[in-house]
Design a protein that fits this description.
Distance between the termini: 25 Å
Oligomer: single chain
Order of helices and strands: HEHHEHEE
Strand order of the largest sheet: 1-2
Radius of gyration: 13 Å
Number of helices: 4
Mean pLDDT: 90
Number of strands: 4
Shape: globular
Largest sheet: 2 strands, parallel
Low-confidence stretches: none
Structural class: mainly alpha
Helix content: 25-40%
Length: about 100
DNA sequence: GTTGTGACTACCA
DNA sequence: ATGGTAGCCACAA
């Protein structure tokens, strides 16, 4: 039996990303045990409340970019948080070296 | 049951 | 590098 839902596992994996590191949607899905569900990870993050404590800002797409409209409020907030955590950015893109995240 | 949507990804020109 | 396309799959109507 599996009372646990995908959504809860995804939340747990996102929460496990250490400060100063980032993970991709695909990595999150894979780590959660649901490869191929990258889109759903994005969907879940889009539905998080504003006051969540989940480090959703540490999730970027496979190119290392922030997957949000550049002009949006969320985009600016994610960029600011990544910088404040010491992530090196090239515009809206994360330097590829900070991908080494392992659970 | 079918259809449309999306904070994705890999592949190809 | 850049842009388009096809595959992907949970979810809501």
């Amino acid at each position: 039996m599996s009372a646990i839902k995908i959504q809860e596992i995804v939340w747990q994996v996102v929460a496990s990303i250490p400060v100063g590191k980032v993970a991709t949607y695909g990595q999150i899905a894979r780590q959660a045990g649901y490869p191929g569900h990258a889109r759903y990870v994005g969907t879940l993050l889009s539905q998080l409340p504003e006051d969540t404590h989940l480090p959703w800002h540490r999730v970027v797409n496979a190119r290392g970019e922030i997957s949000l409209p550049v002009k949006s409020h969320s985009f600016n907030r994610q960029l600011a948080r990544l910088r404040s955590e010491g992530i090196e950015m090239k515009g809206s893109r994360v330097s590829l070296q900070q991908y080494g995240w392992k659970p």
